[in-house]
Design brief:
42% of the residues lie in helices and 14% in strands. By secondary structure, the protein is α/β, with parallel strands linked by helices. The longest helix has 14 residues.
Length: 191
Amino acid sequence: MPATSEQRLIEIVQRSAWLMPALRAVRALALDSWCIGAGALRDTVWDALYGCADARLPRDVDVAYFDPSDTSRARDHALQQQLHAYMPQLPWEVVNQAGVHLWFEGVFGHPAAPLASLEEAVASWPETATAVGITLDTADRLRVIAPLGLADLFDGIVRRNSMRVSVATYRQRCATKQYTARWPQVRVLPA
């Protein structure tokens, strides 16, 4: 029986030299609702799928968590410093998704509604192939968070997620990230 996309993703994560230790590091923070996702996960999957000879540590390790009790950027920074102390070789980026609406307009030029959960946050990430997260429970079981599915991730498709990302931001991201330079098999869809 062929593996499901979720099983394939879990196998890729388990084979990653850096991702399983990173998941354990985040789990040690004892957050209630968290994941590693977005570009770090996308890059790991595409490197595995397309045999990228340039496979390396991620440009950043996106840690998303959801805790409406403290949405301060100072808390994000403190958690990021804890992770850096544990695994200094990784470029950690920690963001409480419960507070994104507080700063989003200042960064992206348009307001964002408050989010209700980590899953809703993951569903709002910029491209459908990056709207994926993975978490590790105390029994070392991986759980995939993919509210938009895994098809674009495994089909190598960059598609704008219109839930929150403007056309201009999507175009800028595609120009900056240069997806096809690293993975020629990837298809970037127009906005």
